[in-house]
Write a structure and sequence with these properties.
Number of strands: 0
Structural class: mainly alpha
Number of helices: 15
Shape: globular
Order of helices and strands: HHHHHHHHHHHHHHH
Oligomer: single chain
Helix content: over 70%
Strand content: under 5%
């Protein structure tokens, strides 16, 4: 478990460091409106990738142990299903991005398709490879992908070709090569003759995951669309610049997907008093650690950001994003716990509440707070969802302490199995 956790954190750390380096380079090379376009396209691809993963990669993690006796048969059938979902998500993402950003010329269209495909497919295959235990391979692919992309951007700068079209094209090429590399390493084949069987099995879990993902994605997308419509893409670029330093928290958040559910399951098998005590201690430690990291990133950005980008750092926007990222990390921890104990329906309703709060705060404040309204609304939504989740989790622990008079592994394991079938 420790090795898996370490490799997962390293992989996500490398990905976040690479994305940060790429963003800093692009912020120096591109105009603010072009940087905003790049950010907007990447956001659309990430949102569609999350929707695709709620039907494919996230479900694969849960189904693989259940179908381990089927071996390569299940995985090859899953690969066919995953390919179709990925292509559909790519088509939607590229169409939406083209509608909002407006590519001109055949090169821009195909580079846009390669860009969004590489983001969606790579993230999905990384989850699949990690579920298969190929942590080292995922780390190697991520290192190749980020290193090659940074070198290509530097070469573009050297020859004076650093524009948005070429950057997106090269990003798509490097990502597609990484996808092919991972597909070869997985080596489980691809078949389409068992699609109905795979779709039925995935539907049992995806019917709970997909609505929550759609609600969360709608919250992010609608907020970005409202900002772009009200203030333009240059403000999108400004907000992205303010958010950049807090990418240091993304490796921790993403790595939770690989090891935290099992750790929570093991904790649930212990006596209820120990479970409550450990959950409280870990929660307080996570809150203190996340707050410290966010504050440190914000303080360092005041001095480092101008040196790297030759642009002033928006301190107030950054402070609000620091608070939002604390809420995001705590929400991730709480939602993992609720998923393991079978409270996925509660996650759906809290996502609805968070979306309503986020959009409500933004619409109520954007006319006089302008760009500040965006991170303020984001932070408010995260904290409302986290508070909702903590109340649900507290009720679960209290109910468990009342109904289980002594540690009953059978009953608590059943709770976990139900959560596994429910997503």
């Amino acid at each position: 478990m420790l090795k898996q956790m370490t490799l997962s954190v390293l992989t996500q750390g490398l990905a976040s460091a690479g994305n940060l380096a790429v963003s800093v380079l692009l912020l120096r090379l591109l105009q603010l409106d072009d940087f905003g376009r790049y950010t907007f396209i990447a956001l659309i691809a990430s949102v569609l990738g999350a929707v695709a993963a709620s039907m494919t990669g996230c479900v694969y993690q849960l189904c693989r142990p259940r179908f381990r006796l089927l071996g390569r048969s299940y995985e090859s059938a899953y690969n066919g299903f995953n390919l179709l979902v990925t292509l559909a998500a790519t088509a939607i993402a590229a169409t939406v991005a083209a509608a909002f950003v407006g590519p001109s010329g055949a090169l821009d269209v195909w580079s846009l398709v390669a860009f969004v495909f590489s983001i969606i497919a790579a993230d999905n295959l990384k989850v699949q490879a990690a579920a298969n235990g190929q942590y080292v391979e995922v780390l190697q692919v991520e290192f190749f992908r980020q290193t090659a992309l940074i070198l290509c951007i530097i070469i573009l700068k050297y020859f004076g070709w650093a524009n948005l079209s070429y950057v997106i094209f090269l990003h798509g090429i490097m990502g597609t090569l990484a996808v092919l590399w991972m597909a070869i390493w997985l080596g489980s084949g691809l078949r389409l003759d068992r699609l109905p069987w795979v779709m039925r099995r995935h539907y049992e879990i995806a019917r709970y995951l997909l609505p929550s993902t759609l609600i969360s994605s709608a919250r992010v997308s609608l907020l970005q669309i409202l900002i772009a419509k009200s203030f333009g893409l240059d403000v999108i670029g400004l907000l992205r610049a303010a958010e950049l330093p807090f990418g240091v928290l993304n490796p921790l958040k993403q790595s939770l997907n690989y090891f935290l559910p099992r750790a929570i399951y093991d904790l649930e098998q212990k006596p209820i008093e120990q479970t409550q005590r450990t959950a409280m201690q870990v929660g307080l430690l996570a809150l203190a650690g996340t707050s410290a990291l966010s504050t440190l990133a914000w303080g360092a950005s005041l001095f480092v950001f101008p040196l790297l980008t030759h642009k002033d750092y928006p301190a107030l926007l950054g402070a609000l994003f620091a608070a939002a990222y604390v809420g995001m990390m705590m929400l991730a921890l709480v939602n993992h716990y609720l998923s393991v104990v079978g409270k996925v329906r509660n996650i759906f309703w809290q996502s609805c509440a968070g979306t309503a709060v986020t959009l409500g705060v933004y619409l109520a404040t954007y006319s006089w707070l302008e760009a500040i309204a965006a991170p303020l609304a984001t932070a408010a939504g995260f904290f409302v969802m986290t508070a909702w989740g903590l109340v649900t989790l507290r009720r679960h622990l209290i109910t468990t302490s009342r109904t289980i008079q002594q540690p009953d592994i059978g009953v608590r394991t059943l709770s976990y199995r139900r959560s596994g079938s429910a997503g």
